[in-house]
Amino acid sequence: MKINDTSSFKIDIHTHIMPKHIPKWADNFGYGGFIYLEHHKPCCANMMIDDEFFREVQDNCWAPEARIRDLKETDVHVQVLSPIPVLFHYWAEGKHAYDTSRYFNDHIAEVVRDYPDRFAGLGTLPMQEPDLAIKELERCINELGLSGVEIGTHVNEHNLDAEELFPIFQRAEELGAAVFVHPWDMMGMNEMQKYWLPWLVGMPAETSRAICSMIFGGVFERLPKLRVAFAHGGGSFPGTVSRVQHGYDVRPDLCAVNDHKAPKDYLGHFYLDSLVHDEKMLHYLIDLVGADRIALGSDYPFPLGEHVPGKIIESMKLSDQVKNQLLHGTALEWLGKTMADFGRTDKYKTEAKS
């Protein structure tokens, strides 16, 4: 690709990473439940929770060199790195989640510094301790040079409309930090263990839970400049938004208690990634929120992701301008960056405005 040719430039906003070596936090904190890696063979490790096997992962989960090999094979130019959600540690004591967050954030910042043309970074926060979360958010932006943070769809007993969490969002808006909301600790997990249902059913519901909480809780109304993106194409929200709107219309006494704008009025006020696995669904999302609110996201390197990021977008009958918007334009806006930040000329924005 020529240095000035940004027509196929791809920025993947939804990828996960962790350090190659994770301390056994249980030894430090005096209680269990934390992930560590057991490197049992080359380029491969077991994720362990205490002494129980959780998942086997490859070196593309931690090694930037392995990720760059994959980037070259799939013609992705930039990945936005964020922690694996199981590392949020919201269930832990706040001071300990603060320590683990700093460790993971330092690692992401180091990878971004080493490969600034290939990676941008999102940190994680101890959301259960808002004062510490704000402190680490400020460090992520002001000291580590990260683009924003990834957070979960809820924080223990709090949905994202909780007043306790609002100061974190408020500070994110003030700092111009991008916020990526990813499902974790899926609702109903204990009741639907078979068939991988927590990932197939619970994850999409979790994201809808988060969007609805932020709409009905007035977070978007109070913070109009907050840049929030939701994983997996907004989960089940796009498919149920008319039901949500109807509920608002017929039972405002239950739905409109904190906000006076209708749910559909917020379409276009937040971002979604493109990970919906289907051309028709992606067409629907474009009609629903606009291409300027949808960014390429793959969930790399996990099996539920799009294995060739952007393949569906590139296969669709869309104008070059719309494809460019989906492949990198929206990501740049959400991140608050330009092509020059990744060593490319900023040709795209000139074309998009012409």
Structure description:
The protein contains 13 helices and 13 strands. It is of the alpha/beta class and 354 residues long. It folds into two domains: 11-18 and 62-353, Metal-dependent hydrolases (TIM Barrel); 20-60, no CATH class. Strand 8 (154-155) and strand 9 form a beta hairpin. Helix 3 runs parallel beside helix 4 (130-142) and helix 12 packs across helix 13. The radius of gyration is 20 Å and the shape is globular. Mean pLDDT is 93; it is low at 1-6 and 348-354.
Q: In CATH's first tier, which class of the largest domain applies?
A: Alpha Beta
Give the strand order of the largest sheet, numbering strands 1, 2, ... along the chain: 1-5-6-7-10-11-12-13
State the CATH architecture of the largest domain: Alpha-Beta Barrel
Distance between the termini: 23 Å
Number of discrete domains: 2
- Summed over residues and divided by their number, the pLDDT gives a mean of 93
> Could you please say which CATH topology of the largest domain applies here?
TIM Barrel
In total, the number of strands is 13
Order of helices and strands: EHEEEHEHEHEEEHEHHEHHEHEHHH
Radius of gyration: 20 Å
The proportion of residues forming helix, as a percent range, comes to 25-40%
Largest sheet: 8 strands, parallel
**Principal-axes shape call:** globular
Helix count from the secondary structure assignment = 13
Unreliable stretches (pLDDT < 50, length at least 5) are: 1-6, 348-354
Class based on secondary structure composition and strand pairing = alpha/beta
Q: What percent strand? A: 15-25%
Name the CATH superfamily assignment of the largest domain. Metal-dependent hydrolases
